[in-house]
Each structure stands twice: as structure tokens, then as C-alpha cells.
Amino acid sequence: MTDLVRARELDAADPLRHARDLFDLPEGVVYLDGNSLGALPKATPGRMEQVVRQEWGEGLIRSWNTADWFTLSQRVGAKLAPLIGAAQDEVIACDTTSVNIFKLISAALAARPGRKVILSEPGNFPTDIYMIAGLEAQGLARRRLADVDAIMAALDDDVALLMLTHVHYKTGRMLDMQRLTKAAHDAGALVLWDLSHSTGGVPVDLGGCNADFAVGCGYKYLNGGPGAPAFAYVAQRHQAGLQQPLTGWFGHRAPFEFSDDYDPAPGVDRLLAGTPAILGLAALEVGVDLIAELGMGALVAKSRALSEFASGAIAERLSDLELASPHNPVQRGSQLSYRHEHAYPICQALIARGIIGDFRAPDILRFGFAPAYLRYEDVYNAVEALAEIVTTGAWNTPEFRKRAAVT
Amino acid sequence: MTDLVRARELDAADPLRHARDLFDLPEGVVYLDGNSLGALPKATPGRMEQVVRQEWGEGLIRSWNTADWFTLSQRVGAKLAPLIGAAQDEVIACDTTSVNIFKLISAALAARPGRKVILSEPGNFPTDIYMIAGLEAQGLARRRLADVDAIMAALDDDVALLMLTHVHYKTGRMLDMQRLTKAAHDAGALVLWDLSHSTGGVPVDLGGCNADFAVGCGYKYLNGGPGAPAFAYVAQRHQAGLQQPLTGWFGHRAPFEFSDDYDPAPGVDRLLAGTPAILGLAALEVGVDLIAELGMGALVAKSRALSEFASGAIAERLSDLELASPHNPVQRGSQLSYRHEHAYPICQALIARGIIGDFRAPDILRFGFAPAYLRYEDVYNAVEALAEIVTTGAWNTPEFRKRAAVT
């Protein structure tokens, strides 16, 4: 049986085969970058039209009450919560991942007086590490980076917070949340998990792992749109005492009393700062609804099967290509990364053929497998194109080697 | 000549009379709340459709380059700059007003070591004052509030930053930016102006006033939509040394080098933190383009004429109603506020008649005059309804007195 026949059989038997039709994907494109920007749900343009024309245009200021804009951050958070093993009142959608990281690093420092170290790993997603820098310049935090293998040894009495990304953006490696959370707690530290590359792609059980804090982004597997609002999670046990420094009016107990004194809202609401981004939240809600409806069980099963199919086919066609992701699908996110000296022009040559993956400096070719809309036959076609480009050297043209201003 | 005849004459002679047709306003509504949430420009739904269907849906991840998403924050900032007397490279659109205030308070503290006091006035817009609280809890800042008359006396060697709202949200009182900025500088302090109720409604000349920092919101007179991204201004002379603690990847000199070390972008770009909110920025750009096209000169002239017409008609019909705004239109923003013991039910009774102003606790009736889409005849109708409601006591029903969950 050829790979193509097998791909078609797998598609025919796929319990999620109907889901692709819920997305608007361009013709002739195999989209392997849903881990960077998720595809457009078909329901989104209609919902945006409604929020713009009816809620904003017709309802005007009244829509804060009549269209429930006031509780949109909470509502999206509550819908997102079951996807990551959280209770509904533990998650709120707001701001960006970066800003939410800042809030929760600061909250950990406030909760662990006398400890200043924020422990992470080198090569973590840049914004996570960068968000320590500002607090370091203020004298509030100290950065410590240790390779994941050395994390246990680096957890000492100075560590206020262990901050890690659950699924690594570059390699797709997935960390053992349960074990690392316990290790941090044993050392008296709190833990903050960045779920940006996890949510909607892999199983996450924040509650079961006894995690303290988490953040994640809305524009990858949640399909919330470019620059979608992010989310933040605070375990119930930390909510009453939570102190975060972005003390804006939407995090106040009673914003419309217009008092001069800040009095934080109970619960996770106190993570809000400014006026919520209604247009972005409305688009995110559509994406979250869709993922919740498809169900994490089916999505995770298909994600693993898709990446297994891809890695098998690539190993067969390009046996020299170095897999930078873990070989075991339960130890990685919904992606495969390969190392190649010429990853950049290979990626450009793929894009020219409608196969959209991405490049991560200096030498990573990254393919995401968004299980909601990707078919096995798409993966087959992508592997065929990749094999052709690599074996013939078709990537080696001035056009493909020319770097974009931003890659 | 009756007020109605005069209103119609003023409308006929209005150089901005064509502008109303550029907005989508509901039938039967007189919208006096453009200072809280601006109306929907007719061009916005089409632009949103384009950014959602074409740029996101068709372009997918490629649109970061091909649709210039990477520079959208800068582009909107540059278009906004001339409306507030700034150079194009001094303004950037991002995050919320609250978050931008936090960045710039922190930047002032970094630029004035040894000084911890942030000076503002009691009753300033809550989020402005609240944003000091988080920094105070971290031991970085100290809040000092002084009535505007006593601000000069409160400016001493401990003050790092004078932070004031240019047009007061409740009363509409406009401060003397030139004089107060100079006073702050004479005391060795920096100054941060909140332009949320100014931008697009009154003349602002940040450069001419030698202002250091400013912030403002996109959803009022700029008509950027509910929860639109905000903006921040940093005078060129402060940009090279600017330190702000929300050190996210979009504020990095080269985000896609994925280095572990934070190296701030040159200029105002370093105010960026997380991934920009593309949907919100796209809507904001339409609103900014529209206001820029109409021109601040014409808008300011009409704003003053509208509020003069309104205050004259109200004084005639309801001579006892106490004006909480300055009597001189050049000393106030594009709004009029009145004090009334029963402001809340009066506001509800007006809304029931399609006259949408708003209530600000405890006793303020607030009417905004967005000059781009408001007609003199609208103002006439609003005053008629107000006079009828107040003189007949039509506000005094259980329905109008019942408070919404959020007012």
C-alpha cells in the first residue's frame, strides 16, 4: 500500500473529517503553521460582522450591558478552562501572553518574599525570558537559566518561581508538568506554565498537576485570529491573596464607583487591567467554542496520528533529515521540527508550492499539525514536496535564499 | 428665531455636515456618548471583513509580511501623531491605556532615580490613579494626590512624575498643558498626560508644550471600536534611554533572532510588549484615518460651537441645572456635565427616548459632543427631551431608578 492510499484511508476513517469544513482555508494550500497562526473558522466573519455592525454600530455604549461585553473576558476564560484542566473561575482572557507573564511573575515575587530568582531554561520562547528583564532592571527579580536536565539542581531557596513553556516552540518537546511542578513546590517555589503551544493541541491538566499559574495565547491552536487576546490561569488557592502590579480599573472590585483607591476584585478578575479588547475577544470566543465542541480527546488522538504519519513518511523519504523533536509522540506537542543547514530556503521553496510551514532561526524547519483542519492527504503532499525540494536541491535559488525583512 | 430654526441654520452652514454620512448611526438615536465609545465609521465593517477574510483567512501567517501586520502599531501611531502635536516616530498604538500608563510611570521612575513620588489629582480617572497602586505595593513608587490648585505647591524634589488627565472625564475641565508641564520640569519632574478625553476632540500640542510622555485611548473620539488599542507617546529626547519593565518580544531590537537576552528596539518601538492585536488595530486605523481626514481645526471649531449651543439652550430651559464643566468652551473638552441629585434616573429616561448620554457616579449627567457626526438639531432634540424629563419629573419611575449591574 502506498503512502497516498494509506493517507486516503486514514482520512476516510477520521472521526474529525467533518471539522475541516468548519474552517475557511485557501485553495491549494497545505497549512502546517497552525501552531503560529491558526486558520479562520467559518463562523468568525459572521460573528465579527455582528459585533461590529449590531453590537457596536447599533448598540453603541449600551452593548457593555446588553451584549455582555462586561463579562466577555470571564466568559471566554470559562469556556477555555476545561481545555486545560482548570475550573471555570480560574481562567480569564485578556491582554497578551507577555503582559500576563509579567503579572504572574510579579505575583509570584509578592507571594514569596525574600526570594527573587525566576528560574527558566535557556532557549525558552524569547518573550518569556525577556519579561524577567524588566523586573530585573527594577531590582525586583533575578534571572536564572538552567537546562531542563539541570532544573532540579537549580531549584534552591532563592527561587520564587519556576517558569517553563510546556511545549517548546522550536522543538515541540513537551515537559512533564506533574513532575516539574512537584519539584518546584518541594523547593518552596511556585510554578508558571506557558501553554501557548499546548492549548488545543495536547492534553493539559493544570488542576491534576497542582499548577499555580499558567498563561497561553489565543491565536495558535485556538484559532482566535492574529494578535488574539491571551489568557491567564490562577489556581483557586492563590486567588484571594494574589497581588499583581498592573492594577487597572477593570481589575477593581467596583470600577464604576470611581473611587480613588484600588481595591482588587475577588478572584481571577483582578488580573484585568484596562478596558477589554472586545473585537479580539469576540473572535477568540468563536475559536474556543469550536475547539471545545470538537473535544480535546479527539483532537489529541488525531494530532498524534498525523505527526506519526508525517514522521514515518519523512523518515522513509529523507532518512538523513534530523528530527529535532522527540520521537515519541506523547512527549511532543502537535508539531515536528527538523534541523537542516538550509532550513530557510527550503521553507521558502515549500511556501512557493503552497506548503506553509515555518522557519525558526538558525536551522529549524517547523511543521505544525492542527488536528482540526489538517488531512492525512495534506501531510502526504507536504512530505512529497519536501522530499522533492531537498533531494533535487530546488531550494537553492537566489529567490528562496533572499531573507524577508522579518522571517 | 426659535432654537430649532437656529439649529437647522447652523447645520446647513456646517462645514462638517457631510461627515455624519461617514458613520453608521442607528435611527432615532441622538448619540451624546462618543466620549465613551465613538460611533461606527461606515468604512470599518468592510475593512474588518478584509482583514478577517483576506488577510487572516487567505493570507494566514504570510500576512505578517504581506499585509504589513508587523508595522501596524507604528503605522497607526504615525497617523495619530499629527492629531496631538507629535512627530510620527513619537507615537505607537498598542495595549491599553492602563498598561501604557504603567510603562510610562515606570519609565519616569527609572529616569529620575532617588525620586519615588507620582503626583496626580484626586478624582483623576480611576485607572490612572490605580496604576500607581501596583508600583507602590512593589516599593517602587509613592502616590501623592493634590487638587489642581495645589499642584504647584506639591511639586517638590521627591516627585518623579506629574501625571494628569488633560480633559477630566467627569467634568470636562481642560488643564493648561503648557503651564503645568513647565512647572513639573522646573521641579525636576517629568510629566505624563492622559489624552483619553482629548484626542480627536480638542487641540493638543505635545511638542509645543515640551511634554515628556502621553497616553490615550482609541475608542472615544477616534472611533476605533470597543476596547480598541490605546496609544503611547514618548518625546524623541527620551527615547534612546527609555526603560520600561514590560520587556516583551515585540519591543526587542530583533525579535526573530530568538536570543535569550533582551535588547530594546530603538525609539518608541520598545514600548511594545506582546504580539499586537491586529483586528483591533485594523479597526482603529479606520477611525484615525477618518478623524485625520476631517481635520482637527474643523472638528475643534464645531465641538465648541455644539457645546455652546447646548449650554445656551439648557441654561434657557433649565436655569437651575448646575453646570459642572467650565463655562468657557476653550477651557473644556468636547463635553458638558451637569450635576443633579437624580442624574441616574434622568439619564435612563433620556436613553428610553433615544438620547444616549451617560451617568457618572454619584450625580453627574454627561453629554459628549463628537463633532464628526453630531448635528445641531440632534442637540436641540436632546435639550428638549432633557427639559421635558426634568420639569415633568418623568424620570421618577421604578424602571428608571433601577440600577443596572454596571452603570
Automatic annotation (TrEMBL), chains A, B:
<dbReference type="InterPro" id="IPR015422">
    <property type="entry name" value="PyrdxlP-dep_Trfase_small"/>
</dbReference>
<feature type="binding site">
    <location>
        <position position="219"/>
    </location>
    <ligand>
        <name>pyridoxal 5'-phosphate</name>
    </ligand>
</feature>
<comment type="pathway">
    <text>Cofactor biosynthesis; NAD(+) biosynthesis; quinolinate from L-kynurenine: step 2/3.</text>
</comment>
<dbReference type="InterPro" id="IPR015421">
    <property type="entry name" value="PyrdxlP-dep_Trfase_major"/>
</dbReference>
<dbReference type="GO" id="GO:0030429">
    <property type="term" value="F:kynureninase activity"/>
</dbReference>
<dbReference type="GO" id="GO:0019805">
    <property type="term" value="P:quinolinate biosynthetic process"/>
</dbReference>
<dbReference type="GO" id="GO:0097053">
    <property type="term" value="P:L-kynurenine catabolic process"/>
</dbReference>
<comment type="subunit">
    <text>Homodimer.</text>
</comment>
<protein>
    <recommendedName>
        <fullName>Kynureninase</fullName>
        <ecNumber>3.7.1.3</ecNumber>
    </recommendedName>
</protein>
<keyword id="KW-0662">Pyridine nucleotide biosynthesis</keyword>
<dbReference type="InterPro" id="IPR015424">
    <property type="entry name" value="PyrdxlP-dep_Trfase"/>
</dbReference>
<dbReference type="Pfam" id="PF22580">
    <property type="entry name" value="KYNU_C"/>
</dbReference>
<comment type="pathway">
    <text>Amino-acid degradation; L-kynurenine degradation; L-alanine and anthranilate from L-kynurenine: step 1/1.</text>
</comment>
<dbReference type="GO" id="GO:0019441">
    <property type="term" value="P:L-tryptophan catabolic process to kynurenine"/>
</dbReference>
<comment type="similarity">
    <text>Belongs to the kynureninase family.</text>
</comment>
<feature type="modified residue" description="N6-(pyridoxal phosphate)lysine">
    <location>
        <position position="220"/>
    </location>
</feature>
<keyword id="KW-0663">Pyridoxal phosphate</keyword>
<feature type="binding site">
    <location>
        <position position="165"/>
    </location>
    <ligand>
        <name>pyridoxal 5'-phosphate</name>
    </ligand>
</feature>
<feature type="binding site">
    <location>
        <position position="97"/>
    </location>
    <ligand>
        <name>pyridoxal 5'-phosphate</name>
    </ligand>
</feature>
<comment type="function">
    <text>Catalyzes the cleavage of L-kynurenine (L-Kyn) and L-3-hydroxykynurenine (L-3OHKyn) into anthranilic acid (AA) and 3-hydroxyanthranilic acid (3-OHAA), respectively.</text>
</comment>
<feature type="binding site">
    <location>
        <position position="275"/>
    </location>
    <ligand>
        <name>pyridoxal 5'-phosphate</name>
    </ligand>
</feature>
<dbReference type="GO" id="GO:0030170">
    <property type="term" value="F:pyridoxal phosphate binding"/>
</dbReference>
<feature type="binding site">
    <location>
        <begin position="125"/>
        <end position="128"/>
    </location>
    <ligand>
        <name>pyridoxal 5'-phosphate</name>
    </ligand>
</feature>
<feature type="binding site">
    <location>
        <position position="98"/>
    </location>
    <ligand>
        <name>pyridoxal 5'-phosphate</name>
    </ligand>
</feature>
<feature type="binding site">
    <location>
        <position position="194"/>
    </location>
    <ligand>
        <name>pyridoxal 5'-phosphate</name>
    </ligand>
</feature>
<dbReference type="GO" id="GO:0043420">
    <property type="term" value="P:anthranilate metabolic process"/>
</dbReference>
<dbReference type="GO" id="GO:0009435">
    <property type="term" value="P:NAD+ biosynthetic process"/>
</dbReference>
<feature type="binding site">
    <location>
        <position position="197"/>
    </location>
    <ligand>
        <name>pyridoxal 5'-phosphate</name>
    </ligand>
</feature>
<dbReference type="GO" id="GO:0005737">
    <property type="term" value="C:cytoplasm"/>
</dbReference>
<dbReference type="InterPro" id="IPR010111">
    <property type="entry name" value="Kynureninase"/>
</dbReference>
<feature type="binding site">
    <location>
        <position position="249"/>
    </location>
    <ligand>
        <name>pyridoxal 5'-phosphate</name>
    </ligand>
</feature>
<keyword id="KW-0378">Hydrolase</keyword>
